[in-house]
């Protein structure tokens, strides 16, 4: 309980990232008596200085009603005497603002030790952290703690975010962390029913990307028998997560850039734009240096996305987190296999610390699930499957193609020009380029000639004239995005 919403969100997210997910937030002290009467809690944290009803008064109310619930009071620097008085009245501990994360977790952990979990009157949360709780982002690593704090901060903004990191570090988990934090910001602890929509955009061509993200109207192209909503519409005011954005074509990147800049998009075949209401989180396993290569990624899109740039370190740079992640994954594997979780042998951590984890946290989880599935009996976890896994990966890495030598990586000499008679005339070359540009504009406009003309910077009449010159496209005809006009 705290009248400062920012403080409430910070407390909840710090607890959530530490695996404590069953929380309720309250910013209005007048609602507290009703909540205490209607629900069961294992712990109450309350700020002393709240309007309407102070924390000290709430503590007295709890004592008068005989509520046997441990309480932690939160105080400012000038209220320590009041906090001590509250402890004399039954409070278990007190925290001084600004609350240190480690101190918060220590106080909450100690207070919850030996307390039964609250009944179903609170929420229907499962015992294990949900997928978007950041359970796999548990960390002791300073760099990862900075990432966690960044996720909370980014959740307050509607600007796009870009998550960068190697394969398997948990980029989607980070995106879900932003989404979960945004729900807490908006709903003060109650789960706001906002969708999280994920899409791997690698391999999508321009037309498929437009159709997937923006949707289409009936008759937008050949075979479009009915309209279909795109993922942006399905995401609503939730979160749209685009994975592997670094593999998009440059032309698809341009479409996305326009959508982000204008906060609107055109479904294929539509005459009117639709507003982009969702939060956009993109991810890639390419490095920032690779994204700054104009042959790979548009710089204008990169700088638009990097408003919130989140770089997740690889697992090999945060090995201190193994002692948090290993028990988590073994317990999860045991639940799925309906077997008791095996004991962790003391040789396991040195074995893992000597492995490079090219697949990062995802690989750690997979290899532990593999070992847990093969485990027999009730003894410690058998390390043989893990050693076999590691040997196999190491051999694969050793036999992978070596990095190119400086001579081999030098730019290849330009190919000789073809013979003069093979070259098109300048007029022919200009016509071919014009055809490609016009068809690309028609694709981006969903076949709408007025929009295509606007994209090309010419009048609709001028576009009409050029289309007649190309042949195969008549005024008012919607173009199949995959169509190519033959010149004959």
Automatic annotation (TrEMBL):
Please, one GO biological process term?
A: phosphorelay signal transduction system
PROSITE patterns assigned = RESPONSE_REGULATORY (PS50110), SIGMA54_INTERACT_4 (PS50045)
Q: Which InterPro entries match?
A: AAA+_ATPase, AAA_lid_NorR, CheY-like_superfamily, Homeodomain-like_sf, HTH_Fis, P-loop_NTPase, Sig_transdc_resp-reg_receiver, Sigma_54_int
GO molecular-function annotation terms? ATP binding; sequence-specific DNA binding
* Tree of life domain: Bacteria
Region (Disordered): which ranges? 116-137, 396-415, 469-488
- Specify the Response regulatory domain's residue ranges: 1-112
Q: Where does the Sigma-54 factor interaction domain lie?
A: 137-373
Positions bearing 4-aspartylphosphate? 47
Q: What is this protein called?
A: Putative response regulator HsfA
């Amino acid at each position: 309980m705290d009248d400062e919403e920012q403080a409430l969100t910070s407390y909840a997210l710090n607890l959530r990232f530490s695996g404590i997910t069953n929380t309720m937030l309250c910013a209005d002290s007048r609602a507290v008596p009703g909540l205490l009467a209607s629900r069961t809690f294992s712990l109450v944290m309350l700020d002393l200085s709240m309007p309407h009803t102070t924390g000290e008064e709430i503590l007295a109310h709890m004592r008068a009603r005989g509520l046997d619930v441990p309480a932690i009071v939160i105080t400012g620097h000038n209220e320590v005497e009041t906090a001590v008085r509250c402890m004399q009245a039954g409070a278990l501990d007190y925290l001084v603002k600004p609350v240190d994360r480690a101190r918060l977790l220590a106080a909450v952990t100690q207070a919850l030790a030996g307390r039964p979990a609250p009944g179903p009157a609170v929420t229907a949360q499962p015992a294990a952290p949900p997928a978007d709780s950041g359970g796999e982002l548990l960390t002791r690593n300073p760099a990862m703690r900075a990432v966690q704090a960044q996720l909370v901060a980014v959740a307050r903004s509607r600007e796009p975010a870009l998550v960068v990191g190697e394969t398997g570090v948990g980029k989607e988990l980070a995106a879900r962390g932003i989404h979960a934090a945004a729900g807490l910001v908006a709903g003060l602890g109650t789960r706001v029913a906002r969708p999280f929509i994920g899409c791997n955009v690698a391999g999508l061509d321009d037309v498929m990307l437009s159709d997937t993200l923006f949707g289409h109207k009936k008759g937008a192209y050949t075979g479009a028998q009915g309209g279909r909503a795109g993922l942006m519409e399905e995401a609503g005011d939730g979160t749209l997560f685009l994975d592997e954005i670094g593999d998009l074509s440059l032309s698809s990147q341009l479409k996305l850039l326009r959508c982000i800049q204008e906060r609107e998009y055109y479904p294929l075949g539509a005459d009117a734009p639709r507003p982009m209401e969702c939060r956009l989180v993109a991810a890639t396993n390419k490095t920032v240096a690779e994204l700054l290569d104009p042959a790979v990624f548009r710089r204008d899109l990169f700088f638009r996305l990097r408003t919130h740039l989140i770089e997740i370190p690889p697992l090999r740079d945060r090995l201190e987190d193994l002692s948090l992640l290993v028990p988590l994954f073994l317990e999860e594997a045991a639940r799925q296999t309906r077997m008791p979780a095996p004991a962790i042998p003391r040789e396991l951590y040195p074995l893992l610390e000597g492995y490079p984890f090219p697949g990062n946290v995802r690989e750690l989880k997979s290899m532990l699930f593999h070992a847990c599935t093969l485990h027999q009996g009730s003894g410690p976890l058998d390390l043989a499957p893990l050693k076999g896994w590691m040997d196999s990966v190491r051999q694969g890495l050793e036999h992978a193609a070596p990095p190119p030598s400086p001579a081999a990586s030098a730019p290849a000499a330009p190919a000789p020009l073809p013979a003069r008679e093979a070259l098109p005339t300048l007029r022919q070359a200009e016509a071919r380029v014009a055809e490609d540009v016009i068809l690309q504009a028609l694709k981006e406009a969903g076949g709408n000639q007025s929009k295509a003309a606007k994209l090309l910077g010419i009048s609709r009449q001028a576009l009409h004239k050029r289309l007649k010159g190309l042949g195969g496209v008549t005024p008012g005809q919607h173009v199949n995005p995959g169509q190519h006009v033959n010149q004959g």
